[in-house]
Amino acid sequence: MIRSHTLKIALVAATITTFIIIYSCLSSIEIDKWIPTYPYYISGNPLMKNIGEPRSAQPLHRNTDENYERTNATLLSLVRNEELEDLIPSIMEVEATFNSKFNYPWTFINDVPFTEEFKKRTRQLTKAKINYEVIPTEQWVEPAWIDESLFNASSRALEKQGVQYSSMISYHRMCRWNSGMFYKHPRMLQYRWYWRVEPKTHYFCQIDYDVFRFMEDNNKTYGFVINLYDSPESIKTLWPVTMDFVAQHPEYVHPNSAIGWLTDAKKRPNHNAKANGYSTCHFWSNFEIGDMNFWRSQAYEEYFNHLDRDGGFFYERWGDAPVHSVALGLFEDSNKIHWFKDIGYQHIPYFNCPNSNKCSGCIPGLHSDGTGLSPENCMSNWLKYSQMEDLY
Ligand code: GDP
Ligand code: MN
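YS: structure for the whole thing
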């Protein structure tokens, strides 16, 4: 009797201890990060189901196919000479996971000429063709109507509100160029598709099919991996200025748009209020696989010119991510936007990490390695409001 009683107590104690150990392990790795946000919590994190290759209207194109042919695409990096050491690992990973199989050309673009060192070191990383390009000055610098003293005054005000990089003119130029210029660069004019690659980004999964041809075959315009809320202080008037444009051009709004994703006020009402009606949800544009014909369309050209005239790239700090996202969310069929679940990716501090035997080096389902960042994840809203078909 006594023996079995002691045994029971010991069992209960052991069970409690096990729970405490498991709990403390889990809390030390912050369980909230594993569960991106409602409704993932209810329906399960979509990255945790076994992620294979996407379904495709045509068989996926592989380098091992007889008669495999590339399409008209380039890997694209806008980058500074000083970022060479941070870019090298990213190039190596893109090559190791994808491009050593498909040999798409790389295009490196800079506002000043690339150094010989930059060229020499990057040439060693790929057998594909490389274009080294300089941005024509008139594409890079502020347009004539931007007033320098107004820029200085507004950037100081934004700085006080904690808007990152607001006093760096180069950052404003970069955001504007990525919004409305990159696809007009003389070199880029020869391509239709691009994949944007930034320094310090990481790629974790083998991609064994041609992603550009996948986009083409399935009539997709834009591919992303991470969906986030933005800092509303940086885009206070982007939405009202956009609404002016839409009032002039209601015909550009697509009947199958993701406007609900752009205007949601339920999940983060303060963000929506501060951004004057925009949820601030956006595709994180340091990764993009896209069709430049969308950016070259009349609707986007007119929209960009409207934004550019307004001056918010300089007097606020509009990012290319919200600008691209607002345009895609309004003017494109949301089913033409594809979540590349199978591309394991990191740009500090966020991840897209699928549960797949093609991946290594990231934790499946993990959204961020920073503390308390799960509210920044907007993916559940994208899934709720878009018509995007799940191809996995
Ligand atoms: P963050 O990701 O928003 O922190 O911004 P980054 O510093 O990563 O800049 C975004 C991209 O633009 C990166 O690929 C940078 O290399 C590039 N970039 C930013 N500023 C400049 C610049 O002044 N000149 C050039 N050539 N590239 C820039
Ligand atoms: Mn970056």
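YS: worth flagging: Residues 39-385 form a domain with the Spore Coat Polysaccharide Biosynthesis Protein SpsA; Chain A fold (CATH 3.90.550.10).
IM: good catch. Also The first strand starts at residue 73 and ends at 78.
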